[in-house]
Specification:
heterodimer, A: mainly alpha, 3% strand, B: alpha+beta, 2 domains, 10-stranded antiparallel beta sheet
Chain lengths: 188, 356
């Protein structure tokens, strides 16, 4: 008789799913907007900047919650390499959620572009203009975006693997609603 | 039928296939969004490729309007524009201006008399922290109606096929107007004698929220003196830069900024169509060019004259060009800042004793 796995707090779960939508939308908007010179380029780039700042704020809130509330422990029988991968990927996801908006903001600052969000809200420049710094930040923002997307895919694959193949309760810790399995604990 | 239970290997296999399908599907959607599955999508990169001269782009330079000379000055708003737009820049007062006279060529070394289109990039900053950036040119209308047609024009003019331009003009008849202008409009021997036009339409919003479609122009105070292309050529490949340096040294040069308001039904989405002459036109102020600045290492170099950097009170319209220009200018800026070493800011000083 296994005790029910403790779950993430409701606020943590809410933030997770809200941000999942934001981050995936963000990656698609980013890669789409730079591929077009159609009129939609302008609204897309405004959404990209605004959503980026929203993600930054939510990620900081989420990090604070994580440090304060913590996270359910992984199943004891999870192989060590998978545990390590789980931990490292979570560090990377948190790092990217915080770093990517800052890189984007700094990149625009280093190019002397005004940073204008939806509703014509202006953000201050956080760096002076610099060719070399702009190039460095541009490269970081660009290549880390693809790394971020790969990591998101890996995260989704791992979540589904936990939910469908291992059925070890890990997915249920973050599931938006209690799942059938948890409501009626398994017949194991 | 055997039941699929979590412990059955068929269930596990099915789950793995499902996971692979989900991941593959999302990755494919991402690739589609990025344009990797759409070779025909007109990307900003393709536009810049088409702009580049046969030998490739001039590294470190703007990908178009590469030849130019920077200036600083002020914009003196007379207050009349405040009736059209709530932008601070139309409040009576003086605001710092930075700009760049330029030639519509991707070649920074092009001879002046070989370039038909001249332009001005301009940035006016206001105390509310906002900016108005614009990049204007001297023809009275744009050569083509859409960014796609502009791309096709670049491809046709670079094509070795002798019929390419004929085929292009057949599909884009508006281009004939531009050819007629290019063949007949007088040349001048000074940037100070040229008129610069936004051509694109923008939406001005006043304090009451009323929106009006508008275009703007800078009208030179200096008398325009016509010169033939051949005579301009005789003055040397870089005459315009020398001339404007001397002229501004002799005294500030002025342009009147006028805003023209569309009548209902005027074409706002097509900069190749000029509006009739009788449209309401408001003089909103004067651009005073007080000093010519270094081009290579001056204050313009860091600025992308992106026409979508607009103050509150001016916004883009249904004209598709500002978005296309913003997108392409951004890539041009990304490239040239990454190539800064190919266009060093100051010509490297010879270190004593060092051999080049």
């Amino acid at each position: 008789m296994n005790p029910p796995h403790p779950r993430f707090s409701p606020l943590q779960r809410l933030l997770h799913w809200l941000m999942a939508i934001c981050v995936i939308a963000m990656l698609f908007i980013g890669v789409g907007m730079v591929s077009t010179l159609m009129p939609k380029y302008l609204p897309l780039i405004t959404i990209h900047k605004t959503l980026g700042i929203a993600i930054l704020i939510l990620a900081l809130l989420r990090l604070a919650l994580r440090l304060r509330v913590g996270a359910p422990s992984l199943p004891a029988d999870l192989p060590a390499p998978m545990k390590l991968a789980a931990h490292l990927s979570h560090y990377a996801l948190y790092g990217l959620m915080i770093a990517m908006p800052l890189l984007g903001w700094a990149m625009l600052s280093a190019a002397e572009y005004p940073v204008v969000l939806y509703g014509r809200k202006f953000l201050p420049a956080i760096l002076p203009q610099s060719d070399s710094v702009h190039t460095l930040l541009w490269n970081a923002h660009y290549y880390l975006a693809f790394a971020f997307f790969a990591l998101v895919l890996l995260h989704v694959a791992a979540a589904l693997f936990h939910a469908l193949v291992r059925r070890d309760g890990v997915f249920e810790t973050i599931a938006p609603l209690p799942l059938r399995d948890q409501a009626a604990p398994a017949d194991v | 039928m055997p039941r699929l239970t979590p412990s059955s290997s068929r269930y596990t296999l099915g789950s793995l296939v499902l996971i692979a399908g989900v991941i593959g599907g999302v990755a494919t959607a991402f690739a589609y969004t990025a344009g990797w599955l759409s070779p025909d999508r007109l990307t900003p990169g393709k536009m810049l490729e088409a702009l580049a001269p046969p030998g490739g782009p001039a590294l470190g330079h703007r990908r178009n309007h590469a030849k130019g000379i920077c200036f600083t000055g002020v914009f003196e708003a007379n207050g009349n524009g405040a009736a059209l737009s709530s932008a601070y820049v139309f409040t009576k007062g003086q605001y710092p201006a930075l700009g760049r006279f330029n030639l519509g060529t991707p070649n920074p070394d092009a001879a002046d008399a070989t370039v038909r289109v001249r332009g001005m990039g301009l940035r006016i900053a206001t105390p509310d922290g906002q900016e108005w950036r614009t990049a204007m040119i001297d023809p009275p209308f744009f050569p083509v109606s859409t960014p796609q047609a502009f791309h096709a024009l670049l491809l046709a003019s670079a094509s070795k096929d002798p019929n390419a331009m004929k085929a292009f003009t057949a599909v884009n008849p508006e281009f004939a107007n531009f050819t007629a202008w290019a063949d007949s409009a007088p040349w001048t021997a000074s940037f100070a004698e040229d008129r610069y036009n936004s051509l694109d339409s923008f939406i001005f919003t006043d304090d009451f929220g009323i929106k009006r479609a508008a275009r703007w122009s800078l009208l030179p105070a200096a008398q325009s003196v016509a010169i033939t292309q051949a005579d301009l050529a005789k003055r040397g490949p870089d005459f315009l830069e020398r001339e404007i340096v001397e002229r501004v040294r002799g005294g500030p040069q002025r342009w009147t900024l006028t805003v023209t308001i569309a009548n209902p039904g005027d074409p706002t989405s097509d900069p190749s169509k000029a509006w009739p002459e009788d449209r309401r036109t408001v003089e909103v102020g004067t651009l005073v060019v007080g000093q010519i600045e270094a081009e290579r290492d001056g204050p313009c170099r860091d600025v992308n004259f992106d026409p979508t950097v607009l103050p509150s009170g001016i916004a883009t319209s249904d004209d598709p060009f500002p978005a296309a220009r913003s997108s392409a200018y951004r890539v041009s800026y990304d490239l040239r800042t990454a190539e800064a070493k190919d266009y060093p800011r100051t010509v490297a000083r010879t270190v004593a004793g060092a051999k080049p």
